[in-house]
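Problem 12. The chain below contains 246 residues. Write out its predicted structure in token notation.
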Amino acid sequence: MSTAAAVPSQQPPLSEVERLVDTFIAPSKTFTDLRRSSNWVVPFLLIALGIVALTFVAEKKLGFEKMVETQLAMQPKQAARLDQLSPQARAAQMETIVKFNKVFSYGSPVIVLVFLVIVAAVLLGTFNFGTGAELTFNQCIAVCMYASLTSVIKDVLGIIALLVGAGDNFTLQNPVASNLSGLIDPSSHFLYSAAMYADAFSIWTIALAGIGFSCLTRVKRGTCLAIVFGWWVLFILVMAGVAAAF
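Solution.
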């Protein structure tokens, strides 16, 4: 169960472009190269660019007012509370909600960074204390960043969907039909949230992360996948519980 992080890689050093490409076609090469350098700035910038680009296109094609109305249609209780207000009060409340959503959406790269830092810290503790690995924090966050590059593809697909005319049910939280939430009534908050987070791209990310940690340690790949998958399932249950409660 000891780590292999200190063992020099036998493969030639990869350029940043090779790392990015190999994340999707030969992930073991990318994650093994993290032994040499655990720089994660470039993948984070790409993730941030994907988020901002999708938000910008969605604003231009639909507008935040339309997206907020779509979101409210999926939350009948909140919509009903707004409808009980006077027209002036409802308009003022909607303006506040729209502004908040705009700031939150464009600021999402910062939220993603904080979230991945927390995830990296949790996985660092799990692997180092639970399996006897000797990973560094930079290695853990680098694995999380490269594994999360799948979100860039999801953002690109969302942009394409917007450009070809999608929009009636479009939300930034769920831009493409890559999960089963479309088959569930949004008012069933727990099931809807669980289905939304159990996304094909999330599963892809989990698989890449498992491969990544197996490349940096001597822990079996199946064990690494089980650890990452277990934390992901717990995250889904917590987020679905929060959605049901609030």
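Discussion. Residues 16-245 form one domain. Students who got a different answer should revisit the alignment rule from Section 12.3.
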